Amino acid sequence: MAQVKVFYEPETELLTVFWQPPRKEQISTELGDGVILIKDSTTGEPIGLEILSYHPGDDRFDAVSVELGQLSPIQ
């Protein structure tokens, strides 16, 4: 089972969520509205996200959807 780690830094208003361990070699892609997708630089696989200027009750989470799990084999 995946372990989700959430880090909140109130002094910088930065919320970081990882559903896979952070990598030494990772890249970031801004999705818009201060939401940044963090990916493994080798595979391009999403491993986390950051939300800039975050505060509790922020409604930008309504626009973020992350699904974890394995795909069923195609038959």
Extended strand count: 5
* Overall geometry: globular
Question: What radius of gyration results from the CA coordinates?
Answer: 14 Å
Strand content: 35-45%
Classify the secondary structure makeup into a structural class.
Answer: mainly beta
Query: Uncertain spans, ≥5 residues at pLDDT below 50?
Result: none
What is the H-and-E element order? EEEEE
- Straight-line distance between termini: 25 Å
Q: What level of helicity do the residues show?
A: under 10%
Which whole number gives the mean pLDDT? 82
Report the biggest beta sheet as strand number plus sense, adding barrel if it closes: 5 strands, antiparallel
Q: Note the total helix count.
A: 0
Strand order in the largest sheet: 1-2-5-4-3
Description of the molecule:
The protein is mainly β and 75 residues long. The chain has strands at 5-9, 14-18, 26-32, 35-40, 46-52. The chain has a five-stranded antiparallel β-sheet, with no helix packed on it. The radius of gyration is 14 Å and the shape is globular. The mean pLDDT is 82.
Describe this structure in a few short sentences:
With 75 residues, the chain is an all-beta fold. The protein has no helices and five strands.
List the helices and strands and how they pair.
Elements: E1 5-9, E2 14-18, E3 26-32, E4 35-40, E5 46-52
Antiparallel strand pairs: 1-2, 2-5, 3-4, 4-5
List keywords for this structure.
75 residues; mainly beta; five-stranded antiparallel beta sheet
